[in-house]
Automatic annotation (TrEMBL):
A GO BP annotation: L-proline catabolic process to L-glutamate
Necessary cofactors: FAD
GO MF, any single term: proline dehydrogenase activity
Keywords: FAD, Flavoprotein, Nucleotide-binding, Oxidoreductase, Proline metabolism
Name this polypeptide is given: proline dehydrogenase
Domain Proline dehydrogenase per the UniProt entry, residue ranges: 40-298
Catalysis: reaction(s): L-proline + a quinone = (S)-1-pyrroline-5-carboxylate + a quinol + H(+)
């Protein structure tokens, strides 16, 4: 896992991979395409299976304000595409470092605020993804400010990572404001004073936090491919007479498609995170880090082509 996370930050390998045809073919397992048309097409195909989507234009840690503004333009075009397809159940996910957070947090907030205004007009929703722990507090503070603006309630939400020790407290604060949360395990490398190092502790916290979310009266997303986490959620919902329509399961594009379909079949709201764009490398490497066997699986499928 650590090796793939380290590789995800390797600039030379990133440039080489993103430009090569082979790299693009490899990434297509987890990335819906390079263009906006391709991602909309993927969302429409999911919708035909009864699956909603959250569209993500790949990119993170931009280094100039122009890059940040360019990233925002792509999101405005995505929101336009959603607005002109009122029957499509889609929203967007953004990363603050893609909106200039490392350069100027004020710029990032201005940009995301513009996206939330657009989402309000398009009657959809902006989810701010959670990145490494150096951004946790700033992300929470920004989302709370944006959510508190008149008209924005229910149109902007956040992600909480079950591997962080602080998450229970953060959920208390955010649900107190009425903010929608996506709960995931967490995909970055964190020190043990901030995050549980052992999978069993992350899993136990995930279950505990799921209970906290499902009893909050707010529509949240439970984002996992882990069958144990999904079974625990389903059991809790059953035993506590929670309406399955008051939350959704979320998964990543290309991962456990069988499970995605079976949740829909069983009547659960299901949403898939659909990333697209040329800057796929760090995202792709984090997916390999979660399941190194994927590297072998992808190599085999390329050899078969
Ligand atoms: P876990 O990693 O324990 O895996 C359980 C099982 O799921 C595996 O045994 C395997 O069967 C399957 N699986 C998991 N990952 C797989 C993969 N890559 N390929 C194939 N099978 C796989 N993280 C973050 O830090 N910030 C964020 O904003 C988000 N956003 C986000 C959105 C959505 C919709 C999802 C589903 C996930 C995220 N994540 C994230 C990523 C998340 O933190 C986590 O790294 C992955 O979801 C993997 O964790 P699981 O809960 O799936 O369990």
């Amino acid at each position: 896992r650590s090796a793939f996370i380290a590789l995800s930050r390797n600039a030379a390998l990133r440039t080489f991979s993103e430009r090569s045809q082979l790299g693009r073919r490899m990434s297509s397992r987890f990335v819906a395409g390079m263009t906006l048309d391709e991602v909309v097409h993927a969302a429409e195909a999911l919708q035909r299976l009864g699956i909603a989507s959250t569209l993500d234009s790949l990119g993170e840690n931009v280094t100039t304000p122009n890059e940040a503004r360019h990233s925002a333009d792509i999101y405005h075009r995505l929101l336009d595409a959603i607005q002109t397809r009122p029957t499509m159940n889609a929203n967007v996910s953004v990363k603050l470092t893609q909106m200039g957070m490392d350069l100027d947090p004020g710029l990032a907030e201005e940009i995301v605020s513009g996206l939330v205004d657009h989402a309000v007009a398009a009657n959809t929703f902006v989810r701010v993804d959670m990145e490494g722990s150096e951004y946790t507090k700033a992300t929470i503070d920004m989302v709370r400010r944006l959510h508190a603006k008149p008209g924005n309630r229910g149109h902007v939400g956040i992600v909480i990572q079950a591997y962080l020790h602080r998450s229970q407290e953060d959920i208390r604060t955010l649900t107190g404001d009425g903010i929608r949360i996506r709960l995931c395990k967490g995909a970055y490398k964190e020190p043990s004073n901030l995050a549980f190092p052992e999978k069993k502790d992350v899993d136990a916290n995930f279950v505990k936090l799921t209970h906290q979310l499902l009893t909050s009266g707010i529509y949240h997303g439970i984002a996992t491919h882990d069958e144990d986490m999904i079974s625990a959620t389903r059991k809790f919902v059953r035993e506590n007479n929670i309406d399955p329509k008051t939350f959704e399961f979320q998964m990543l594009y290309g991962i456990r498609r069988d499970l995605q379909k079976s949740l829909v079949h069983d009547g659960y709201n299901t949403r898939v995170y659909v990333p697209f764009g040329t800057e796929w490398y760090p995202y792709f490497m984090r997916r390999l880090a979660e399941r190194p066997a994927n590297a072998l699986f992808i190599a085999k499928s390329l050899l078969k082509q």
